[in-house]
Structures are given as C-alpha cells and as structure tokens.
Automatic annotation (TrEMBL):
GO cellular component: plasma membrane
Protein name, UniProt field: Membrane protein insertase YidC
Gene name of the record: yidC
Gene Ontology biological process: protein insertion into membrane; protein transport
Pfam family, one: 60KD_IMP
Amino acid sequence: MNQTRTFLIFAWLAVATLLFLAWTQERAAPPPATPGTTAPVAVVDSGDSTVPAIASAPLPQTPTARMTAAPAAAATESAQQAPAITVVTDVLQVRLDGGAIRQADLPGYPQTTAPGSAPMRLFAEDPAHFFQAQSGWVSSSGPAPSHEAGFIPVLAARTLRLAAGADTLEVPFLWQGPDGVSIRRSYVFTRGDYAVQVRDEVVNAGSRPWQGHIYRQLLRVPPVVKTGFTRPESYSFHGAAWFTPQDKFEKRKFADYLEDGPLDKQVTGGWIAMLQHHFFAAWIPGAEDASVFSLAAPRGAGERQLALIRELGPGVAVAPGARAVTSARLWVGPKLVKRIEAQQVPGLERAVDFSSYSVMAWLAGLLFAVLAFLHGIFGNWGWAIVGLVLVIKLLMYPLSAAQYKSAAKMRRFQPRIEQLKERYGDDKQKFQLAMMELYKKEKINPVGGCLPVLVQMPVFLALYWTLLESVELRQAPWIGWIHNLTAPDPYFILPAINIAVMWATQKLTPTPIADPMQRKMMQYMPVAMGVMFAFFPAGLVLYWVTNGSLGLLQQWWMLRKYGEAPAKPAKAG
C-alpha cells in the first residue's frame, strides 16, 4: 500500500476516534434523584469486636446552612457553626472549620492565561459550584460531632500562614461532649504538599465507654462542562472514583451516578475521590483501616442535585480514661504525577485518568514519563514533544525505512503502472491483477506504508490522553503564538503547516489509483485532514507536524538514494 493510501487509513482512524470521543463525551446533565438518601446508613463492624455495628445513627449529607436559599435559615444555622479559619501555605489557600474544608484555592494554577487571573478554585462555598471535603463522627452510645457543628477552633487567630523556614503548620479544633468525651481534630499542612493530614484524637474522661465511627466524605454540585472539539476538558472524566485492594480502580461519572447502585462496599485501606479535568480531591484513610465506601445523590437547596462519596469508618471503642487516634490524608490539588507517586498510596496514580483502557493508560503513562524526562533536558514541554517524535522515529526507523524504500521503488515504476492503466482501460480487475504481478516481480511491498501508521496510531491516541490529562502541560507555552499546548492553535498556523507537509508528501508519493473520482478525493485529503487537526490540542498537532516533516525529509532522502527519476513510457512504434 502506498503512502497515499496510508493517508486514507489514518483519516478513517482519526475520524473514527473523533466520533468515539464525541459519543463518550461527558454529559453535563445532573444525576437522577434517588429516594431515601437521608436514611440511616448501616455500618459493619470495623474489626474491633467491642464496637457494635451502627445501624441507627443517621449521617448528615447536605450542609443545609451553606446551601440553603433562605437567608433567615442561613443566619440561624451559621450562628451555631464554628468560625472559619483561613490557612495559607506555599501551595494552598483554604478556608476551613472543624468539620469541613469549605474553600480551597491553588495559587500556582491560574484559571486562565490572562495576566492577573484568579487562582484555580477547587473547593467552593457558593451554591452554584459547591464542593467541600467534610468529616464528622456518629455514635450509638452518646453525642458526637458532625461535620456541620461541634468543633471549635483552639487558636484565636483567624488567618494562619506557614512561616518562612517552617515545614508544617498545625490547625487544631476541639469538640467536648457532655459526658466527658472530647475529640481533638488537627489539620496538618506541609510545605510543598497538597496532601493535608487530618488527625482525630478521642479522649474519654467520663465514666462510661464511648463508641463511634468517623466518616469522611466529598460532596459537590456536579459541574456543568461545556462540550465541543475546542474544549478538551469535555472529554476528561468528571465524577467519583475509588480504589480497593480487591477490585482496584473504579469510577462513576456524574451523569449516571447511581446507575449501578449506591456502592456500599466494605474495604480495608483504599481511597475515595472526585475527579475533574486536571484536578481532584481524595480522602485517603490508613492502609489498615476498615470502612465502608458509599455513594449518594442527595438534594441541596432549591432541589439542586448533589453528588456524594463517603468513607465510613474505622470504628473506635474508648474505655473510661483511655484514648484512641485515627487519621487520614486529604489530597486537594492538581494531578501531578510525581507528587501523587510520592504519597506511596496503592492505585492513587490512577487519579490521573489517562484512559479507561488499562493498556492505553499504561502507554500514556509511559509517554508521559518520556516527556517528563525530555522536559528535564529542554525545560520546555513543546520541545519535549519534538524530542518525543525524534525518539519514536529512531525506534521505528527500520519500519519507516522499508516503507519509504518501497515508495521509492513504486515511484520508479510509475510509468509502467500508467501503461497498464492505458492497456486495460476500465477493466479494473485486470488492472489490479497486472499491477500486483508487477509488484511481485519487482519485489515491491504494497502494504509497506500501512504498518508504521498502524503502529503510530496507539501512540497518537495515547499522546492525546496524555495532553488531555497532564496538568504539567496545562497552559504550558511553546514558542511565539503557542501559549497553551493543551488548547487548539489560536491562529491555526500549525494546522496550516500540517496541510503543506501532507500536500508535499502526497506529491512525492506515487498514486496508482485508476478511478478519477478517488484521485480527486486524494488531492483534497490534506485539506480535510488539516481542518480536522485545527481543533486538536496544539501539542498534538505539533507532534503530527514534526512527525510528518521528518517523514517528508526521510522520504525525500530515500527517493534520492533508492529511486530513479521515472522515465517516460516508451512510445508505441
């Protein structure tokens, strides 16, 4: 198969890919209402035989005071809540109380590339974008603090900053029950870390045993994601995800949140999360903690649909005069591969959701590792993509050399193919048989151009997911007009160069197509491909332009080395 037909193969595969992506695009519709979301949650024993199963302690699901549309109700509830404390570190700026992180900004990640852009806000209090990480306690043996009320700040300051030279900042809260039981909750922030340590210490100074279970949950309004080929975020996964040692990584998108049920999975270790484009939040309990993972879709203020994922457990039994400690990590930040791997949590790297298919996810992860290595050399993600093409070209040189050598031979014998067309006229079957006989006699491989493209297609698709998901490349510039490699080229310069490269490649390639209509279609193929590439991320177009340009250079060299200028067909008589 010649290089021209290679374009047809790639065009078909690329169009099929776009159709598949459009079909699987995340829907922005909110999840369906589910009855019974405020019913008590049955809890299995955590493994401690002294802690009974809790089947009668209801769990708060919606922060009514913060979501309500009634100002009077909001004022009444707010008076009972602990005041919020603002915490500023080198990578996070959050507002929190004892039961929830209400708001979280990421100073290192502006929302847009415009100068002075506000930082990315992951957690938010406003009803339209509500998203919080919450944690509280339930007990069948006495009072317990919920995420809505109970904890009060220990420190008087309402703004705390990580001091210069300090590595950690601790923010303590305290709940004191009427029966002598107290719970001290500490949020510990670490310099350069998006993982917040949340530690609860239960002290029983009373005269009766106290039993309880801690719950940790993520609650949000499902985001409305604008769709379209020019919006790569619309193809990224938006929804809940969880990992268990038994079933590994699983996820549920917001559009069909409870389609397969409320989950209710008994787990030891693991983690729960809510994922979105480039960022995520996750509760990571202790590796030996027994808990129950569950999903719910409660209603908020104004019947606004919410999505909730919860981890309930472990249970503790605290005798009089004793104490118990339980802790978890809360990730609040970007999908930074190296930072996530540094947490040493099994499966947490899957939060960088390169693909639902494990093979494609593995290949995308491998490509990112190579890109990251090259970025360390060049200091620029655009040049790292160019370097990636060079690496792939070197690895595939034997295949591509065979392809271009075959194309050079076909160019050499193009006049004889034209003679066969004239000889057999409209008899396409005889023409094809004669042409195949010529290929066989001259040892020309007609399918030599297919294999390199077929091998590169998985690489191309994996790179698409890499560019889509890698927050490291978010808003990353290349040169000149390319200020964001994960967004389309704003001036369509790279797609135009791609058209020129494909047109030049086509001119160097013999086209033994008898049908005039097919030949005309092939002439317009570079334009059609260029228009399609105009809506791809600039980094992906850069990859293909570099690949095509090197291929064009390699083909020109092979024609000089192996090909001869095609002689004119001999005239009859």
